[in-house]
Design a protein that fits this description.
By secondary structure, the protein is mainly alpha-helical. It contains 3 helices and no strands.
Length: 80
């Protein structure tokens, strides 16, 4: 069973909070494949990086694929 503490919502907008909480719920229900669909400029990279960070800190993650289509998105994720 996945055990992740409550999300620190500091700096997250409502859509990001919902996305991360839903991702965590999906993983807790043993459904590890997920898709985040958020509008342009709403912080998808930050949302995904927040969730990945939580997985690395609090769960036994065997593999995490973080795929971006531009170098700048990868660089942005590196700062989270």
């Amino acid at each position: 069973m996945l055990s992740i503490p409550a999300l620190d919502e500091t700096g997250l907008c409502p859509a990001q909070i919902v996305a991360v909480n839903n991702l965590e719920y999906s993983f807790k229900k043993n459904r590890p494949k997920a898709l985040i669909q958020i509008t342009t400029g709403a912080g998808k990279t930050f949302t995904a990086a927040t969730f990945v960070n939580n997985l690395l800190k609090h769960a036994v993650a065997k593999r995490i694929l973080f795929l971006v289509d531009t170098i700048i998105l990868g660089e942005q994720a590196d700062y989270v």
